[in-house]
Design brief:
By secondary structure, this protein is an alpha+beta fold. The chain contains four helices and twelve strands; from the N terminus they run αββββαββββαββαββ. The strands form three sheets. It has an eight-stranded mixed barrel. The longest helix has 68 residues. The chain is globular, with a radius of gyration of 34 Å.
Length: 295
Amino acid sequence: MFLLPQTKWKEGPERHMQKIGAETKRKTTKKKGTSVGDKIAVIVLVVALFVVGFAGYKLYSTMMEYKAGVDEYSEIADTVIHEREADKEHVRELKDVKGQSVKHWVPPFDVNFDELKSINDDVVGWIYMEAIPDISYPIVQGEDNDYYLHHTYKKESLFAGSIFMDMKNSGDFSDQNTIIYGHNMKNGSMFGELKNYKKQDVYNASPYFWIITPDDAYKYKIFSMYTADVEGNTYTLIKGPGKETIEYGNSMREKSDLDTGIYDFKETDKMITLSTCTGNSSTRFVVQGVQIQPE
């Protein structure tokens, strides 16, 4: 009979085998515990990767939508805007229906409204800000104030939407207060750069903006910029000349965050209120201008 060396069995073979079994059981139990932990870790990792991937997808989708909006308006501008000669006269005289000579502004560039109307006949004008030339867009007016919030000039469904006139205003800018809306886009498009008028140096660079229409061009001097309450009197629509126009103009100028100088409002003055969101649903940032006549 083959005998194992006695030195291997100091505690006896049965006791030794019991220890081996207990050790194996402990290792097996430990392995099972680690396996459960690993599974939990894997699940957490998968969820984290999904969240990161989804966030990346949303960011990519948002950036592509921004790009689509910018590309569309850049294409429109390239098609319909024709630059003028720098030394060309800024005022011209035309005969009115009574045969009298009337002075009119010559805009900084020409706009092909026939081409614009072939794309979208809701167009009522074009806005251009001298101090912020990136704000140069067609203005539309819809049957309500919702459609163009998220539809572009070509009526594509995009968050950037359009620059649009309040549905209650006259489409020829003849009201005493015409309200124009635009999104405050994070990439600076639409009215995203309008907030730069909070800076005195931007206002000082040029306090003027233009509204160009199929029939004429109007120049406005900015007299106020501030954060307005959506339920406040900023959004008052004034249809006809009167003392209400003077009272409104003075009230709005007092709200201004910057010094815009003195202006004596008249009953016949026509004003533009440019409005964009602030991130707070109860407020809007507005820039207001009053129409000035050529001399």
